[in-house]
Amino acid sequence: MTTTQELTAGLDDLPYNVFARVCPSRGTLEHVTGRWGALTLGALYEGSLRFNELRRRVDGVSEKMLSQTLHALERDGLVHREAQPTNPPRVDYELTPLGHGVAERLLALIHFVEGSMDDVLAARERYDAARA
């Protein structure tokens, strides 16, 4: 098992401090770990997608939320937007090298969570039963 000290070792040596209110890394962490950001990065890990393909892949996201998410991820340098001068216009989204590295780590977390869902569901059931 990993200790807290092992997990936090070296955090004080980093040039940014996500735990500080004004740290710019906090906003990026929010973009990456928010529901739509994480799912969008995970979906783009498989390759370039057009907006509507991405919207279908990330089931439940509204057009407005996906657009906002993509803008934030593009601004952070995680997603590249490629507009083709065709009629009708074609816009493709893909991960940048930085985005690929972030998505890889997110997918590891997603796999861990999905692999632990039996335990999570059992814990929820125990919690709900104790409060019923």
From TrEMBL:
It comes from Streptomyces coeruleorubidus. It comes from the Bacteria. This is Helix-turn-helix domain-containing protein. Keywords: DNA-binding, Transcription, Transcription regulation. Pfam families: HxlR. Residues 23-121 form the HTH hxlR-type domain. The keyword Iron does not apply.
